[in-house]
Amino acid sequence: MSRWRRQYYEVLPALSVRRGALRQSLRQITVAWMFGVAWISCTSGDQVRAFAKMLGFNDFAFGLLGALPFLATLGQLYASILIERTGWRKFPFILWGTVHRLLWLAVAAVPLLVRPGWGAVAVVLGILAVSHFLGAMATPGWIMWMSDLIPRRIRGRYFARRVLWAQRVQIVVVILLSLALDAATVRSSPETLASQGRLMAVICAIFAVGALLGAVDILLFWRIREMVGQEPPRPSATGTLRATLRELLVEPLSDRVFRNYVCYGATITFTATFGGWYFWRYSTEGLGFSKLGTNCLFMVIGPLAGNLAIRGWGALQDRWGRRPVLVVATIGTCLSVLPWFFTSRSLPNPPGLIRAVNGLWSGVSSCPLLAPDAPASAYLLAALGCVLGGISWGGVGLAQTGVTLQFADGHGRSKYVAASAVLISIGGTLGGLSGGAMVQSLEFLRAHPIVLGPFQWNHWHAAFAVSLVVRLASLGWLAHMPDPGAQPVRYMLRYLTANVSNAVSGRLFYPLRIFGWGRGPAGESDDSGEQSP
Asked: Which overall architecture, per CATH, does domain 17-222+244-503 show?
């Protein structure tokens, strides 16, 4: 540790990074995030659901699992205090971030040391709580470091390109992992540790590899120059815990822009964790999709749609502002929930539909996406929801990053960054806990669902319904959130509508124009009196 500290101070922080050095740093950040998305692909997805279920997680434990990352953001308070007092950003980020990722090695070892049951559930949740807490401690330093390093004029487009490259890596990794998981699954056996021992071994190996890839992501930042902060450290920023909490959490709320933003962020995050893992459980346990099919829904199809749209969101944000992008993208997240209410195994599957879906999928992978007995109609509806969700959540995330970086540019920067993360995480924590409690209390609907024609709605659909209603309610905060420099939302909607209309009409009527539709006989004059061409 002392050697790391010495190396950290051997190179003085830079006043600015420009031209070739800046381009090199931005490329390094993009490459690092490619390892980061590989870590995310290994430590999320259906393998986490299967791992948790085999260890004894119930619906409430899944809700708590979804709430942990947001509950752990309290660690950003401590990180903010440290930054205010010392000015350190790079070293804490690398130290805490590396340990945060490597703790997934401990998660992978749990099935070897603890038998399935509440003891194993508690151990996994405890390890992940520490991991998420350290990850939260690393976040403020990274955000402030990037706000100094990345010029404001290119942030939207740079982060869009960064996501674009990283998601290509994610798609490849997810497909390979899903194929390995399906190959290790014994389909005729229940999802328990006793009957799926090979699957558990594969999942633990995936977690271990993911931990190493995640550590590489963090360590690649070692070669990027630290930046001199715009504000000097404040060693006098001490006091009682009550005074510190008031300075970090209460004072930023006096800013109207900040207040509306964090209330929106808390509300939309509540909706994400309230439904959270139940979309995964419904896909696998309710609709019977394979691990490849489920992972591709949420980690390939959705991100691929977002990949195609992310550069457009970046351009829209740079041109129209952050609030219009948040409004339009939030409406899209509402629409993305609707198809899930109409997915059912009882939906008719037209002949050849599975073959057609696998044919389309063959452009991505040679392995079939759907099994011969899969509910293809339900899968297409779920895919529609994931496409809308991938596009919309990409816009929400990009605009939220822009808002956070804007706060990081102002006075009391680390205070605003930490306060926004902690206050928004309250919504995520409440969403996970209340969602888990509600779904667990309505578990009887799984055996006795509400039936309406071919549709059957159970306790997971109740979580979807609450998530949809609260997403609509979150738009109220955006309606009153100031965004200096942003254009009115209706201007951006008018611009989008006009472009979509022109694109559609141009392609729709082009074949008719080829054959002379809408033109008079040759040589006949039009209303203007000019000769028709």
From this structure: Up-down Bundle (1.20)
